[in-house]
Specification:
With 140 residues, the protein is α+β, with helices and mostly antiparallel strands. The chain has helices at residues 2-5, 8-15, 63-75, 81-96, 122-137; strands at residues 28-33, 40-48, 51-60.
Length: 140
């Protein structure tokens, strides 16, 4: 049932997004747009020694895109490039291959597990991960 996807925890995450806005001098900025639903996420990051030291984002997305962006913002500072790539892979497997939810500080992403049954919602849920991965893999 679609109500499982839009549960109270997802709504709570969507309503409490931190690090909203833009950085003045980011290492990298990336914008991703879902062709399916029009959701849009722009991320700004600053990396130092392979670790995210600053992060900001603008999120114009459905509650699922907002929730995944909120969880990203809550956990990204202090994360390594490798950790961010891994959590993105885990999310992709959770949604598309029935894999387990991420663990540790990323365990809140498990609240998005019901999205796996709604392929049309995968794109907006994964936008923040796609933008962050492109930013950390291609930063100067």
């Amino acid at each position: 049932m679609l109500d499982d996807v839009y549960n109270n925890k997802i709504i709570e995450f969507a309503a409490n997004i931190s690090h909203v806005g833009r950085l003045k001098n980011p290492s990298k900025s990336v914008t991703k747009v879902s062709r399916l639903c029009g959701s849009k996420v722009t991320v700004d990051i600053i990396l130092s020694n392979n670790i995210v030291t600053e992060f900001a984002h603008e999120v114009k997305a459905c509650a699922l895109g907002q929730a995944s962006s909120s969880i990203m913002a809550k956990n990204i500072i202090g994360s390594t490039v490798e950790e961010l790539i891994l959590v993105s892979e885990q999310m992709n497997k959770m949604l598309k291959e029935n894999g387990p939810a991420p663990k540790g500080k990323w365990s809140d992403l498990g609240y998005l597990e019901p999205v796996k049954d709604y392929k049309s919602r995968h794109s907006s849920t994964m936008l923040t991960f796609e933008a962050v991965n492109e930013a950390v893999q291609n930063s100067d």
